[in-house]
Amino acid sequence: MPDSRGLRFQAPAYLGIAALDEALLFMDIAGLGESLYSQCVARKDGLLTDSSVHGLHKLADGRIRVDYRWRHSDEAKAQPMSEVFDSVVLTTPSWLIETGMRLEGFSRSMLPPAIVEAWKHAHWETSCKVYAPLRKSFLDQYPHLPQILVTDSFVHDVYAYRYNDQHTRDCILLSYTWEDDATKLAAYSDAELVEKCVAELDRILLRCTNIGEPISPHIDLGNTRIQRWMTDRNALGCAKLYRAGAYYDAVSLMKYNRDRSAHSGLYLAGESFSVDAGWTEPCLRTAIDTVINLCNNTGAHFKGGFSLEHYPHYQLPRQAL
């Protein structure tokens, strides 16, 4: 499918957990008969893909200039560009803000040092997932082979997943690890890690008296995929947690939209700015929070008599202010 400038990106599949955000973007909105995607691509710069933001600059007139590299994945075609907006919603993982963006022109009252410190010191968990295609016959003809394994081995957790019949293969997650368990796997190349995982699973199953056969014949080892969240340049971490003693730092980020956004024009949304780890929930909660505060700051009319008096106001102890 094309974005606003004609660059192509993957069309929606409406499968798995991605179905939620795909539905929100591509399905028609009740009462409008038009999707958010349709509304965005109707504007010249309404939806830009392959665009890496590297700077936010607060201008003297109160607006914010967004500096980005268009077509950044292709070095030969990448172009530095910028756009100016009345308001900007910042959703990136906080380590990407720290390592890949410059925020300039914001006063201390717009962006207090305590807020910047709170996202700078956020703890992002590392995670590693090792995927491979699984022959359809595995789940149909070999019921004695386990579909889920929780091990005390370095592979940790294993899951088999069935796609619908339109797919010629199912999927197996050969290894699902977090934190130190994932960090230990960083020294191995993708090929080495796949080989080690399959060999380990075969070893475990062959030693089980009620199974006694390997799983490797059912796995397509020529099409494996490994997701290493900590070295993914678009993430630099898998899920945000807060360390002991840092809870109120996270709460201060949740307060930002209500306390500072009207002055700064900057809104914080996404898992980076929530106390909840878990991808979907913190993103939805902070997105709703952003919309409510943006509407309030721009004089929008709420339906049903709603006002910010009905909306929770996050509180900090006096020493954390």
List its salient traits.
321 residues; alpha+beta; FAD/NAD(P)-binding domain; 5-stranded antiparallel β-sheet; 4-stranded mixed β-sheet
| Shape estimate | globular
Tally of strands: 13
Distance between the termini: 47 Å
Q: In terms of structural class, how would the helical and strand content be classed? A: alpha+beta
Number of helices: 9
Strand order of the largest sheet: 8-9-10-7-11
Strand content: 15-25%
CATH topology of the largest domain: FAD/NAD(P)-binding domain
What Rg do the Cα atoms give? 23 Å
The CATH C-level name of the largest domain is Alpha Beta
Helix content: 25-40%
Q: Quick one: CATH superfamily of the largest domain?
A: FAD/NAD(P)-binding domain
What is the CATH-assigned architecture of the largest domain?
A: 3-Layer(bba) Sandwich
Low-pLDDT sequence parts: none
Main pleated sheet = 5 strands, antiparallel
Order of helices and strands: HHEEEEHEHEEHEEEHHEEHEH
Architecture blueprint of SSEs:
Blueprint: H1 18-26, H2 36-41, E1 51-58, E2 64-70, E3 79-85, E4 88-90, H3 94-100, E5 102-104, H4 113-120, E6 123-125, E7 127-135, H5 137-141, E8 148-150, E9 157-161, E10 169-178, H6 179-183, H7 190-207, E11 225-228, E12 239-241, H8 247-264, E13 266-268, H9 280-297
Parallel strand pairs: 1-5, 4-13
Antiparallel strand pairs: 1-2, 2-3, 6-12, 7-10, 7-11, 8-9, 9-10
